[in-house]
Amino acid sequence: MREKIVVANWKMNGSLKHCREWAAGFAELPKPQQARTVVCAPFVYLTEIGRLMMPIGIEIGAEDVNENPSGAYTGEISAGMLADVGCRWCIVGHSERRQLFGETDNRVAMKALAAVKAGLRPIVCVGETLAERESGATERVILRQLTAVLSVLSPKDLGAIAYEPVWAIGTGKSATPNVAQAVHSAIRQRVAQVNAEAAQTLPILYGGSVKPESAASLFAQADIDGGLVGGAALDPVSFHAIVMAADALR
Ligand code: PGA
Q: Is 233 in the pocket of ligand 1 (CB under 6 A)?
């Protein structure tokens, strides 16, 4: 069976106080038996959350990375720096990065490659906008985004793919389990064209308004191996309930 992974994406939220209260709140709750738990947080908090969360079984990751190893890139953070402070994971190509910061498919691919070179597991986000879905372009868009990454990286080097329909992010309107499963299956088939064995083990996460109430039915789908959780991950109790929904699937 594929590993189950639930990843928090805090985005640009929180404070040191929030990090400490969150970790203390999560630590009081039952430990998952098999689901991997990852918290991706703003760069400045990574060292502190690593210190607080690694002892309670949570791995840490970044929300973005620069594609270059070092140099004159004022304000940027390299994958080596992330590994240095204990990150194991790194989100790349989140739709907010693509839409608000103009990240292209090619740049996302280079970021994923930089993460792998530094020993991180990239979580590569793909997803269509509402207009793309309504015009019937969903699969074409997702496969285009995926192909850019597969052209520079072997699927066995990917940490996870996250399918995040843009229309479902932060809107409270999650994709239904069937709609999500159809896209996850198309993603796995595309990966299988490159490496059938890696396609079977690659975790494909769903993201977009995952809540404790919706998690179990999403994660029960054949090709949904966990979630990338934004809003509901800011509260340790809600996030823990989502982790436990993945953990219950054995
Ligand atoms: P959401 O965000 O759970 O708040 O919809 C998910 C994400 O953007 O990763």
A: no
First-last CA distance in the chain:
8
Give me 65's structure tokens: 């990375």
Is domain 5-247 in CATH 3.40.50.150, yes or no?
no
Question: Within the chain, which residues score under 70 in pLDDT?
Answer: 250
Residue 206 Cα to ligand 1 midpoint, Å, equals: 10
Question: How far is 120 from 117, CA to CA, in rounded Å?
Answer: 7
Q: What is the pLDDT of residues 224-235, one digit of tens each?
A: 999 999 999 999
**CB 90, CB 62: distance < 8 Å:** yes
Domain ranges of the chain: 5-247
**Annotated catalytic residue 164:** yes
Q: Is 28 a catalytic residue?
A: no
Over 161-207, what HEC string results?
EEECCHHHCCCCCCCCHHHHHHHHHHHHHHHHHHCHHHHHHCCEEEE
Ligand 1 atom closest to the CA of 168, numbered from 1: 5
* pLDDT score at 250: 65
Residue 205 phi, psi (nearest 5) = -100, 150
Task: With beta carbons less than 8 A apart as the criterion, state whether 233 and 8 touch.
Answer: yes
For ligand 1, atom 6, the nearest C-alpha belongs to 230
Cα(103) to centroid(ligand 1), Å: 18
How far apart CA 5 and CA 207 sit, in angstroms, is 12
Gap from CA of 197 to ligand 1 centroid (Å)? 29
Q: How high is the pLDDT of residue 27?
A: 97
